[in-house]
Write a structure and sequence with these properties.
- The chain is of the alpha+beta class.
- The chain folds into 3 domains: 2-113, DNA Polymerase III, Chain A, domain 2 (Roll), CATH 3.10.150; 125-242, DNA Polymerase III, Chain A, domain 2 (Roll), CATH 3.10.150.10; 256-378, DNA Polymerase III, Chain A, domain 2 (Roll), CATH 3.10.150.
- It has 6 helices and 27 strands.
- Strands 6-2-3-4-18-17-16-10-14 form a 9-stranded antiparallel sheet.
- β16 (211-216) and β17 (225-232) form a beta hairpin.
């Protein structure tokens, strides 16, 4: 194999393909990055039996061929090369990179032992890359991180004709985002449980192109793989990942509560106040929200050592007589995550009863209707008597 390509093209492609390489591979061969040169360019691939990544870039190919080298090492080298064209050549045992006066020689890994990458499923539909990345970011904040409960570490993707829904929960909070998209067939439908970490990383890595194409191998929850394809800087990228097993909990009904009391305030003011007051919040204790006629007051404390109190102007509406909703206890980290994900100038808190879930929605105007495309539910903490 003998190829020549621009340093920035190589660095970008290697970094993208190598990003999903396992830190502790189950087999040494899985630490490799596959470099394939053909008449129409160079393809870089990685695979760990769960997630695959592949990027194809333009290059001058003198001799076609394939080489498998250490992905992390190649990424470090490509990132450090001078801004000059890079020549890569390989034989059966070694791969050599020459860039200006810099020269690197890497030991090849056995290509014959490398697993075959999964094929991209048939396209299910497409969506604007920026819209997709923002939607995923809003939802993954509510996904669990406990690998012992894998079903909660995923994002449930639901396809219903021209609507794509993303739903995540860690049992203590839930987030739902609904966005329009372009299905490959008019009556497209299905569902998949996608690992949240892979989904978030993939969505962010695809924003340099205009659209992202989603491909589901089938519509059965927990079976098969899902693929994502989009253009990046200098080439076509696609990645696949295995879907999670298990039945996602039925939590959608919590997104449509009938509030007894609603509180509306400026999102930025609430975020800033939460950050300040939470500084003194003791571990595993709540941030208390006191609900008054025209304001809310946030309180937190660390025993007798430190206390914080801050009042914020708010519009409080009681929809049910004698609702008895005068205080609520929030996990401060969950509240900060939810407010940061809203992407709206104003926020509405919808309360049903003390200790019951609270629904957060965004508002474009303080006296306007709640935005229906994004909803975030937080389970309230029990307040001390």
């Amino acid at each position: 194999m003998k190829i020549r390509l621009e340093r920035d093209v190589l660095a970008e492609a290697v970094q993208w393909a190598a990003r999903s390489l396992p830190a502790r591979p189950a087999a040494p061969i899985l630490a490799g990055l596959l470099v394939e040169a053909s008449s129409d360019g160079v393809t870089l691939s990685s695979f760990d039996y769960e997630t695959s990544a592949q990027v194809k870039v333009a290059a001058t190919v003198t001799d076609e061929g394939t080489a498998l080298v250490s992905g992390k090492l190649l990424a470090d080298i490509a990132r450090s090369l001078p801004a000059k064209p890079v020549e890569i050549s390989s034989d059966e045992t070694r791969t050599t990179l020459v860039c200006g006066s810099a020269r690197f020689t890497l030991q090849n890994l056995p290509v014959a032992d490398y697993p075959q990458l999964p094929k991209m499923p048939e396209a299910t539909g497409s969506i604007e890359s920026q819209v997709f990345a923002q939607a995923v970011a809003q939802v993954v904040v509510a996904a669990g991180r406990d690998e012992l409960l894998p079903v909660f570490t995923g994002v449930r993707m639901e396809i219903s004709e021209d609507t794509l829904s993303l739903l995540a929960t860690d049992r203590y909070r839930m987030a739902l985002k609904e966005i329009p998209w372009t299905p490959a067939t008019p009556a497209a439908s299905g569902a998949a449980l996608v690992p949240a970490r892979v989904l978030n990383d993939t969505a962010k890595s695809m924003v340099s192109g205009e659209t992202v194409t989603l491909s589901l191998s089938n519509s059965s929850l927990g079976e098969g793989i899902i693929g994502f394809e989009g253009h990046g800087a200098g080439g076509m990228r696609h990645t696949t990942t295995r879907l999670l097993d298990g039945e996602f909990p039925k939590v959608r009904h919590l997104m449509s509560i009938t509030p007894a009391v609603t509180v509306r305030a400026t999102t930025a003011e609430v975020i800033a106040s939460v950050r300040r007051v939470a500084l003194v919040a003791e571990r595993n204790t709540s941030l208390r929200m006191l609900i008054e006629d025209e304001s809310i007051t946030l309180e937190a404390a660390t025993g007798d050592q430190a206390q914080a109190v801050e009042a914020i102007p708010a519009t409080v509406t009681e929809h049910v007589a004698d609702a008895n909703m005068t205080a609520a206890g929030f996990n401060p980290h969950y509240l900060a995550d939810a407010l940061g994900a809203l992407d709206a100038p104003y926020v509405q808190f919808s309360f049903t009863a003390p200790g019951k879930p609270c629904l957060l929605t965004g508002l474009a105007e303080l006296d306007g209707e709640p935005m229906a495309d994004y909803r975030h539910v937080i389970m309230l903490m029990r307040l001390p008597q």
